[in-house]
Specification:
The protein is globular, with a radius of gyration of 17 Å. It has a single domain (27-295), classed as 3-Layer(aba) Sandwich (Arginase, Chain A), CATH 3.40.800.10. It is an alpha/beta fold and 300 residues long. Helices cover 31% and strands 17% of the residues.
């Protein structure tokens, strides 16, 4: 155990001082929020998540009993973006993600997922499976005239062949949506579990359905939008929707996803200016911690 008290932890994710891009698991912040449609400010999310992660540092995971911060983790700081230029920012993000072994990205808005999927697709050469926690389907053709907004991420990901929609499942969906967007999404083969579905069938059955859709061998990406959580558990986000998941539900689902071949993850849409007592940032930091614990768990 370290003798450094929690409040003095190094200001990186889990307090790691490692900045080596060649690490097995690389943390990077992506402070982009110029494609949001409601509240702005998610550019400050990476710093807030890192700050909240101090609560998790230097301890064992109480479910898998792994020491997550003893894993080969590096925090390489924040990616560069092109100020005020969304397409150029997406290109920059893709370029910086290339060559990283296993990237865990701290958003930023959900638009960052598109260039991360593009980079992975180029590296792996095949469409990815996708486990997507969100209040919104994010398959709009555009938002208010902006084709690369945070609400059109997976419309592009599907059309560009970055993900296999038959191996794509969305969990926690509950926002208002036009019927044509819903029908298009379902028509592509995407499976949607609404927040109400999760409340009714429970955590274990939700995880079981994820396994059924994703399988256990092909590469899969996990994208966690913090607004999948109910505003009672995550008020600090740009587009909150009532009726969402409790933090314990999301945590329990992720813990049951062992055996899936995950190749990357992001946690997005943390907006510190609207947070209360760091509860949103802590939820986001913990979901990433749960993901790392899942990867580092002892073999069965």
């Amino acid at each position: 155990m370290s003798n450094t008290p929690t409040f003095a932890t190094y200001p990186s994710y889990l307090g790691t001082a490692n900045r080596d891009r060649r690490a097995e698991y690389v943390i990077a912040g992506i402070p982009l929020d110029i494609g949001v449609t409601n509240r702005a400010g998610a550019r400050s999310g990476p710093g807030a998540i890192r700050q909240a992660s101090r609560m998790l540092a230097d301890n064992h995971h109480p479910y898998f009993w792994t020491s997550v911060d003893a894993m080969p983790i590096a925090d390489i700081g924040d990616f560069e973006i092109a100020l005020g230029n969304l397409p150029n920012s997406l290109d920059l993000i893709e370029q910086q993600a290339m060559g990283l072994s296993h990237l865990l990205a701290l958003g930023g808005e959900h638009g960052i997922t598109l260039p991360l999927l593009r980079a992975l697709h180029k590296r792996l050469g095949a469409p990815l499976g996708l486990v997507h926690f969100d209040a919104h389907v994010d398959t709009w053709v555009e938002n208010f005239g902006q084709i690369y907004s945070h609400g059109s991420v997976f419309y592009h990901a599907i059309n560009e062949g970055l993900v296999d929609p038959r191996r794509m499942i969305q969990i926690g969906i509950r926002s208002p949506v036009t019927r044509d967007v819903w029908d298009w999404t379902i028509g592509q083969g995407v499976t949607i579990l609404s927040a109400q579905d999760v409340h009714e069938i429970g955590v274990a059955e939700t995880a079981s359905r994820i396994h059924q859709i994703i399988g256990g061998t092909k590469p899969t990406y996990l994208s966690f939008d913090v607004d999948s959580l109910d505003p009672a558990f995550a008020p600090g986000t740009g587009t909150p929707e009532i009726g969402g998941l409790a933090s314990w539900q999301a945590q329990g689902i992720i813990r049951r996803l062992g055996g899936i071949n995950f190749v990357g993850m992001d946690v997005v849409e943390v907006l510190p200016a609207h947070d209360v007592s760091e509860i949103t940032a802590l939820a986001a930091a913990t979901m990433l911690w749960e993901y790392l614990a899942l990867l580092g768990r002892p073999a069965p």
